[in-house]
Write a structure and sequence with these properties.
single chain
Length: 141
């Protein structure tokens, strides 16, 4: 089990890891060794995540989630496969922790005086424009 918060923990069987060749410096080692880690986590199918955390996580990682609801994290920062694996897991844990904290509730506040004045001035301007479009009444009897 991977602890996320006091209430949320991930089962390691929910994660699938694969390793791919990384680009960047490393000489011939780059061409021979698959050192980049690719971590896949099924956000929609995870029984470990409560529904509100799942919804916030999907919203948070909208760009990196597939149509099936699978989050893909690719770690290629280090030359070592083990360090990239740990980096991918740490990034997943950080994302879920961010999604686990609910946003503060929005408190409704009255609109500021300046915005009220702008709204009323715009309304008066619009009324004057429409008044100009009206046909002038005939003065002759």
């Amino acid at each position: 089990m991977i602890p996320i918060t006091d209430d949320v923990a991930l089962d390691e069987r929910e994660l699938s890891e694969s390793f791919i060749r990384a680009s960047g410096p490393g000489g011939q080692n780059v061409n021979k060794v698959a050192s980049a880690a690719q971590l896949r986590f099924d956000v929609r199918g995870s029984p470990s995540l409560p529904a509100p955390v799942r919804a916030r996580l999907e919203k948070l990682v909208r760009a990196r989630i597939s149509h099936d609801g699978v989050l893909v994290i690719t770690a290629r920062r280090y030359r070592s496969q083990d360090m990239n694996r740990a980096d991918a897991r740490n990034r997943l844990v950080a994302l879920i922790r961010r999604a686990a904290t609910p946003p503060p509730p929005r408190r409704a506040t009255p609109p500021p005086a300046a915005s009220r004045e702008r709204r009323l001035a715009d309304k008066a301007r619009r009324a004057a424009l429409k008044e100009q479009r009206r046909k002038a009444p005939d003065d002759e009897p």
